[in-house]
Amino acid sequence: MADRKSGADETVVIKKYANRRLYNTASSAYVTLDDLARMVREGVEFVVYDARTNEDLTRQILTQIIFEEESRGEALLPVQFLRQLIGFYGGQMQGVLPGYLEMSLDNFVRQQEQIRGQFSKAFGATPGAGLLDEMARRNMALFTEAMKMWPGFAGAAARPEEPPKPAAGDDALAEMRRQMDEMRARLDSLSKP
Prior knowledge:
- This protein is α+β, with helices and mostly antiparallel strands.
- Helix content is 54%, strand content 8%.
- The longest helix has 27 residues, at 97-123.
């Protein structure tokens, strides 16, 4: 994540008014969802509160940003993943899934940073976008395969499929698989009475 531009350690407070306008209390200016998306990309921490009730609306606003990004044709989330995610609401795994997703994305980000670092050391520059895109596709495919291993995602009667074996030199992918296998085992033990 990028550091904040201001370097301040405080979280920016955004107020949402009844007219749906968003007000940045740090800059004393109205902002848009695009502005908030840019703040997220820049690593600026913010919270959104309803100006009248002081209810925390951060989750809803972040979800709205994702919806806007997806509706622009910049789809990041596969349809099947969205269906599976919706299927978890109200289920017994709902409490476990957020932590799992957060851990998976943190691991993904760390891997991307390691790759950039390795390329920087080896070639004096960051890798081309094509290589990172390929790694992102492979990680997403691995994540999708891992989700199929859970009965709630693949269907209660479906047997988990074996993920494809990593090619030689695919250490990062193999490590991610190993970690996902460990998480699956832990989750299986938690879901048993």
